[in-house]
Amino acid sequence: MLNKLSLTLAVCAALLAGCGQSADKNANAPAASQAADRPVYNFGTEAVYPPFQFLDEKGRVTGFEPDVLRAVAKEENFDVELKHYIRNKWAESLNKQEFDGWSSAFYSNADYSQAAHASKPFIDTVRIIVSMPDNEQTKNITEIGHLKGKKIAVSKYYGQKMIDLAASIAGSHENVMVTDSFYLSARELFNNQVNGVLGASYVLGYYEQQANKNHIKTKAIDVPSEPKREVVFLVGKHHPELLEKINRGIDKIKANGKYQAIENKWFGQSTHR
């Protein structure tokens, strides 16, 4: 009798355990289903432009733009994968559908119609020159005209037009130091090898934060001839639904404060913003 009772209890226990496992699986099913339902879009980015996009010490794409894009994706229930790629090949890669979009400091005033639609702008930036007020050679520089004959650094990332702009401000191309990155331009300034750095306000604002950590003071000088430039995401023409999601998501993160939190994370209280 006891053996029969033990066998019955064992069978019941097994059945109950099975029911519990089944219930657990059913409880987890909606979450798994929701994750499976989230589309994944692949974005190209040339991750050499801190703080907008760059590779961290583990080789992962990080920066201001990736954070904005991921926040937009979360609001609109999709996922993004970012891959480091050559920026000049953005059109080719979109036309071949190697990527669904691009996030790499694209400005709204350019023509992308050959391969993409531009999202609504999410940040704007202006051209400025950053100098050092405590430097004996630059302490009296307060306006753009005072930079004539001075040495200006500019990153080659901006292209020839920016290099020519630096030359027009400094008086000649001989007074322009072209560097391989914004970091190197800023380093030349902090090492007193140049009198100013020409660049985008938010980028230089990021480096101002780094300088402030070392108690180095900087000052910004406006470039009056240069208009504001708005930064956008690019979306391949084969994904009109993605463009709608990104535009809605930008509005949402601007309204709920998530965008401002990302901006503060990367640019802090910089005076160059």
UniProtKB/TrEMBL annotation:
Signal sequence range: 1-22
Keywords: Signal
Entry-linked Gene3D superfamilies: Periplasmic binding protein-like II (3.40.190.10)
UniProt cross-references to InterPro entries, sorted A to Z: Solute-binding_3/MltF_N (IPR001638)
SMART domains per UniProt: PBPb (SM00062)
Record keyword Signal present: yes
Domain Solute-binding protein family 3/N-terminal residues, every copy: 40-270
Domain of life: Bacteria
Pfam families named among the record's database cross-references: SBP_bac_3 (PF00497)
Keyword Signal: yes
SUPFAM superfamilies cross-referenced by the UniProt entry: Periplasmic binding protein-like II
Protein name (Swiss-Prot/TrEMBL): Transporter substrate-binding domain-containing protein
Source species of the chain: Conchiformibius kuhniae
